[in-house]
């Protein structure tokens, strides 16, 4: 981002075809995955694809094959954009693992734009009484974090460790605390640690600090492979460590005895299902999940990504499209 930042460009917007919605963007969250795509950690699927996959907007027009939403409805677009619906994973309710799944801002233009096309079956209905900038981070940071939290199998009232405290972590922490978990946060940034304390963490430490008690589960949000053995050492017998990112630096060598024995589980998270999204949005309507938002103008997408890369953002970054 420092040498080849994003550039604004004009593209012709096609009419929505089939089950597509043409959506006017109100706001779009900035995710670490956008940064991984912009910097080439994840290989591009098509050149010059517009990033952004936490989109809040309004339906402007719909293709003739869908009546799921009306013009003017507020909808969200998230990371998962398409699946085959027929493979063994799709049929088993694990569409996040569909080998031909497609992604917003990777396979098709995303929400760092004034408008985008969204397949109606993959759009979410969004409430009117929450601001677009507060809703946007729920659509990836919230959903993926929710899936990661479910995959921890955290017992009621259990101790949850969180490594890295960015956008997804600070939303997931709010869900876990609302569900009665005790929260232990290790993070590099002082601002992130202050945010963790304010949200109600019982213990806050630096990146690789050891919590004072054995954890029931931990989620590693930071894309740092060297935190994997650290988290596995911090969970007690039977504990689970979940890796929430799409990309991670190399995981160092581990020993069976120190890191996995005593039935510790190590799990990853891959994308999300639509069910994860619906559940998280329902949950967000019941318990108040409020991101700490830094808002950028639409034309400042390059600055938002640079700030994310440099660790200058505490909470979630969101692009707001003024019109
Ligand atoms: Zn499939
Ligand atoms: Zn994302």
TrEMBL record:
<dbReference type="InterPro" id="IPR013154">
    <property type="entry name" value="ADH-like_N"/>
</dbReference>
<dbReference type="GO" id="GO:0005737">
    <property type="term" value="C:cytoplasm"/>
</dbReference>
<comment type="similarity">
    <text>Belongs to the zinc-containing alcohol dehydrogenase family.</text>
</comment>
<dbReference type="GO" id="GO:0004022">
    <property type="term" value="F:alcohol dehydrogenase (NAD+) activity"/>
</dbReference>
<dbReference type="InterPro" id="IPR036291">
    <property type="entry name" value="NAD(P)-bd_dom_sf"/>
</dbReference>
<keyword id="KW-0479">Metal-binding</keyword>
<dbReference type="InterPro" id="IPR014187">
    <property type="entry name" value="ADH_Zn_typ-2"/>
</dbReference>
<dbReference type="Pfam" id="PF00107">
    <property type="entry name" value="ADH_zinc_N"/>
</dbReference>
<dbReference type="InterPro" id="IPR020843">
    <property type="entry name" value="ER"/>
</dbReference>
<protein>
    <recommendedName>
        <fullName>alcohol dehydrogenase</fullName>
        <ecNumber>1.1.1.1</ecNumber>
    </recommendedName>
</protein>
<dbReference type="Pfam" id="PF08240">
    <property type="entry name" value="ADH_N"/>
</dbReference>
<keyword id="KW-0862">Zinc</keyword>
<dbReference type="InterPro" id="IPR013149">
    <property type="entry name" value="ADH-like_C"/>
</dbReference>
<feature type="domain" description="Enoyl reductase (ER)">
    <location>
        <begin position="2"/>
        <end position="319"/>
    </location>
</feature>
<dbReference type="InterPro" id="IPR011032">
    <property type="entry name" value="GroES-like_sf"/>
</dbReference>
<dbReference type="GO" id="GO:0046872">
    <property type="term" value="F:metal ion binding"/>
</dbReference>
<keyword id="KW-0560">Oxidoreductase</keyword>
